[in-house]
Every structure is written in structure tokens, then in C-alpha cells.
Specification:
This is SulP family inorganic anion transporter. The chain is an alpha/beta fold. It folds into two domains: 24-414, no CATH class; 422-497, STAS domain (Transcription Regulator spoIIAA). The protein has helices spanning 2-20, 24-48, 53-65, 85-95, 97-116, 128-150, 159-164, 166-174, 177-195, 208-223, 235-238, 244-247, 253-278, 288-305, 314-322, 329-344, 354-368, 371-380, 382-397, 400-419, 447-455, 475-488; strands spanning 78-79, 311-312, 422-427, 434-442, 463-473, 494-497. It has a four-stranded mixed β-sheet with strand order 3-4-5-6, with helices on one face. It has a two-stranded antiparallel sheet with strand order 1-2. Helix 2 packs across helix 10, helix 2 runs antiparallel to helix 15 and helix 9 packs antiparallel against helix 10. It is elongated and about 95 Å long. The chain starts with a helix and ends with a strand.
């Protein structure tokens, strides 16, 4: 009798849990997939950023357990991103690792404030060409820098030096057995990532980055390859909360510029990723201001722990959706799996070869370069394609922050040029009044051209000026046109049709 009662209670509890968490099975399975995708990427981004590998895991954990709980985008997954690798590496090299926490903390607080002020939606107004140019520039610098790591060598400081030094690096590697072994392992990792999509679906249940790192680790152990592996410090030993001395660096203009770059890039990448993820599922749409606040909360926690900055990551987010996730529970659980790994199996990181992680980031950098989008833009909007290319080249030639500013400046200049576009059509039948039609936007930027064309009309003929086709007529143009009409009317009348 008691067994039947207990059995009925158990079944009742199960049914209640199913009602409370109707998608638990799908979310649990998806969380494991996202964990397996995130693990090698978290470690790889940390190593490429010049910080302990465990700090990448810390950011992934915070992205799951903190940002994952908060409202905004239900299926988007956050963590350390390849898109910030170059900027973080430069910041750590210039200001030191203790200041990284201050940079990330300030970034998070600004993001929270911007979300509270409902500025998140305005990030969607940033020119797509600038954002894609920014990612392309990051991808080029990332590829160039990580190719040195693939060969087990140290990369030069600037983007141009990285690209220019590649031939010499390959020549030096050809004469070193260790460098050749490292290059072979990195190239094999990239080959696995490229070919993984062509394998049967059952095989592809294992994420490509995890499979590539696992195979590279196995090859390294079996053949005792002379390649560098990840240095392990332990989770608690890696945490470096910023001290008061580090906060004093906020008076440095260069530090504030880096914070501004963090805010711009992390926010834009997260919100553009949210828009892309929304197109992958039919669930609730992203609330952009809340998502910006969630990203800010995560970065605030990461800053207090001295970890890497976070963004939403499209690779993990798309894997989450494709694995069947239905609610935010999947991303929260993926953070829990990362925490368990960091606590229970940190020593496993020591077996991962650095060339394999560099190969993963070379592949990630290549995917940041929007080759198809550039070709499509060139066919349809050459001005936008030019902005994209100039932004990317500027980031490589100068630095991240100034490159993005150059791209934004070009986008604004292009918009101002197009906004002031105006057309004057003149019909002269040889007799009777000369007909002039103005259309477009009459602004002071095009005033000299408008007046030159009008003043070139015959002075001994009446003129019919039709301005009904204008979308905009600013005060400067209106005044100048009235003065021209008055002067012309002194000899022949001018009939004006106002917009």
C-alpha cells in the first residue's frame, strides 16, 4: 500500500516539474552542446588575449550564471569573444593585467547606465558597414597574430608589422623542427574545423572546436610533439580583482579611450548578435535595452573578478538554438557546466596544445571577414562597401579605436552627402518661360551648386521655378532662392511653386 502511495507521489512530483519546466529536457541537452562549444573558445580567447586561461572560463561562467538569468534575449549566449581579443591583448600589454578589471568594470557600469536610459535600441542605428568593417579588421589582425602563435613564435606589436612579418616568420619556421611541428598541428586543427561540416550528421553532434582540440591534444600526447601547452594556475589563483591603484588609471586618457572602445564594440556586437539570433527562432524577441543592461551586469561582475570582457557570441548562440533550446535555462546550465569543469578538472587544460587554440582563433578570425557581404555591397552600394574596407584597413594600419572612429566619420559624411542630394532639371523650349524643376534635399551644403545653375539661366527670359519636388528646404536655401528670384525678376518675372 505504501509503495503505491510513494509511486503516486513520485509521478505527481514529476508531472508538477514538467508543468513548471516544460522544456527542461530540450534545454538540458542544448546546454551540454553549448558547454562543449564554449569550453575551447573560452580558453583560446583567454590565451590569445594574453591572460591566464582560467579567466576565459570565468567570463563564460558569468555569462551563463549572471547574464543568462537576466531578461533581454532568451536564447543568446554570452562569454569571451574573439572580436575583443585584439583590443584586450593591446590593453593588457599597455596598461597591465591589474588594470583589465577596471576597464571591464567601467564598461559594464556604462552599459547598465545606457540600458537604463533606453539607449540600447540606438545601437541598431550604427552603420552595418562600420560594424562589419570593424569585425573584418579584427579578423585580419587576429589571423595575422595567431599565425605566429600557430608557429610557436611571438607576434609583432602592430597590425601592419604582423602582416608584413609573415613571410619572414614562415622562413624562420622552415628551419626549426619545433616550429614545423607546431605549424603542422595548427594547420591540422584548422583543417578539422573546415572539414567538420562535411562529415555525417551523427559525427557532427560533437562540436567542431571541441573535436579539433581533442584530436590535437591526442596527437600531441601520442607522438610527444615538442609544442607549448596551456599554463594552468588554478581558478582562484587566476582571479585578480582590481586594487585601488588600478582605479587611479581612470585618469589616463588612453584608458578612457579603451573603455569607450570596449563599450562600443561589446555593445554593438551583442545587439547585432541578438538581431541575428532573433531570425533563427520563433520565440520571444529581444528587448534591446534590457539585453544591454544584462550585458552590463555581466561585465560589471567580470570586472570585479579581473576577468575578460564579455559579449553575446553568435557561434554559441546559434549552437544553442540549433540544439533545440527553448528557454534561458540552457544558457544558465551551460555556465554551471563551465563552473564544474573549472573546479573539478582544471588540470586538464595543461594538456591542450597552444597551436590548436591558435588554429581555432585563426578559423574564428576568418569567419569575422564578411567576404560575401563585401561582394554584395560592391554590386549594390559601393559607398557602403568602401566604408567597410576603409574601416577594416584603418584598424589594421592604426588601431581598433581610431579605426572605428574613421569608419563612423566616413559613414556620417556619406549620409550628409546623400541627405543633401539635389537635382535641377531645366527645360528650355526656345520660346516662352524657362522651366526649372528642383527635387531632392535643398540644404546649405549644395547651395553653391544650386545658385550657379540658376544664375546660368538666360537673364532675358521669364523663369518658372517648381520646387514641389523638394523633400527638404532649409532656411539658408529658402533665403538664397528668394534673393535670386528677386534679382532675376528685376528684368524678367520668376514664378515660384513652393514645396
Amino acid at each position: 500500500m505504501s509503495d503505491s502511495v510513494n509511486s503516486s507521489k513520485t509521478s505527481s512530483n514529476l508531472s508538477e516539474n514538467r508543468m513548471k519546466f516544460p522544456h527542461l529536457r530540450q534545454d538540458f541537452a542544448a546546454s551540454l552542446v553549448v558547454f562543449l562549444v564554449a569550453l575551447p573558445l573560452c580558453v583560446g580567447v583567454a590565451v590569445a588575449s594574453g591572460v591566464p586561461a582560467e579567466l576565459g572560463l570565468v567570463t563564460g561562467i558569468v555569462g551563463g550564471l549572471v547574464t543568462g538569468f537576466l531578461p533581454g534575449s532568451s536564447l543568446q549566449v554570452s562569454g569571451p569573444a574573439a572580436g575583443l581579443t585584439v583590443l584586450v591583448f593591446e590593453a593588457v600589454r599597455e596598461f597591465g593585467l591589474p588594470v583589465l578589471g577596471v576597464l571591464v568594470l567601467a564598461t559594464g557600469l556604462i552599459q547598465v547606465l545606457m540600458g537604463a536610459l533606453k539607449l540600447g535600441r540606438y545601437f541598431r542605428a550604427i552603420s552595418v558597414a562600420v560594424v562589419e568593417g570593424m569585425l573584418a579588421g579584427i579578423g585580419l589582425v587576429l589571423i595575422a597574430g595567431q599565425l605566429y602563435s600557430v608557429a610557436g613564435m611571438e607576434a609583432p606589436a602592430s597590425g601592419l608589422a604582423k602582416l608584413g612579418g609573415l613571410p619572414a616568420m614562415l622562413a624562420d619556421a622552415a628551419g626549426s623542427a619545433e616550429a614545423l611541428a607546431s605549424l603542422g598541428l595548427g594547420a591540422g586543427t584548422i583543417a578539422v574545423l573546415v572539414l567538420w561540416r562535411r562529415l555525417p550528421k551523427r559525427v557532427r553532434t560533437v562540436p567542431g572546436p571541441l573535436a579539433a582540440v581533442a584530436l590535437a591534444t591526442l596527437v600531441t600526447l601520442v607522438f610527444a610533439l615538442p609544442v607549448a601547452t596551456v599554463e594552468v594556475q588554478g581558478l582562484l589563483g587566476s582571479l585578480q580583482p582590481p586594487g585601488m591603484d588600478a582605479f587611479g588609471e581612470l585618469g589616463n586618457v588612453a584608458v578612457l579611450g579603451t573603455v569607450a572602445a570596449f563599450v562600443l564594440i561589446a555593445s554593438a556586437e551583442s545587439l547585432f548578435s541578438a538581431a541575428a539570433v532573433d531570425r533563427l527562432h520563433d520565440g520571444p524577441r529581444t528587448e534591446y535595452d534590457k539585453e544591454l543592461m544584462a550585458q552590463g551586469a555581466g561585465n560589471t561582475v567580470c570586472g570585479m573578478l579581473g576577468a575578460l570582457p564579455m559579449t553575446a557570441v553568435i557561434v554559441r548562440s546559434s549552437a544553442n538554438v540549433q540544439a533545440g533550446a527553448r528557454t534561458k535555462a540552457s544558457r544558465v546550465m551551460h555556465g554551471a557546466w563551465l563552473l564544474l569543469f573549472a573546479v573539478l578538472l582544471p588540470a586538464a587544460l595543461a594538456y591542450i596544445p597552444l597551436p590548436a587554440l591558435a588554429g581555432i582563433l585563426v578559423h574564428a578570425g576568418w569567419k569575422l571577414i564578411p567576404l560575401r557581404e563585401i561582394a554584395a555591397m560592391w554590386r549594390e552600394h559601393r559607398g557602403e562597401a568602401l566604408i567597410l574596407v576603409v574601416t577594416a584597413v584603418s584598424i589594421v594600419a592604426v588601431n581598433m579605436f581610431e579605426g572605428v572612429l574613421i569608419g563612423l566619420g566616413l559613414a556620417i559624411a556619406k549620409t550628409a552627402w546623400e541627405a543633401s542630394h539635389i537635382k535641377l532639371e531645366v527645360i528650355d523650349k526656345g520660346a516662352g518661360p524657362v522651366q526649372a524643376y528642383l527635387s531632392g534635399n535643398a540644404t546649405f551644403l549644395r547651395l553653391p551648386k544650386i545658385l550657379d545653375n540658376l544664375e546660368s539661366l538666360p537673364q532675358d527670359r521669364p523663369v518658372e521655378l517648381d520646387m514641389s519636388g523638394l523633400h527638404h528646404l532649409d532656411h539658408a536655401c529658402r533665403t538664397a532662392l528668394e534673393n535670386w528670384a528677386e534679382r532675376h525678376s528685376a528684368t524678367e518675372p520668376v514664378k515660384v511653386t513652393t514645396p
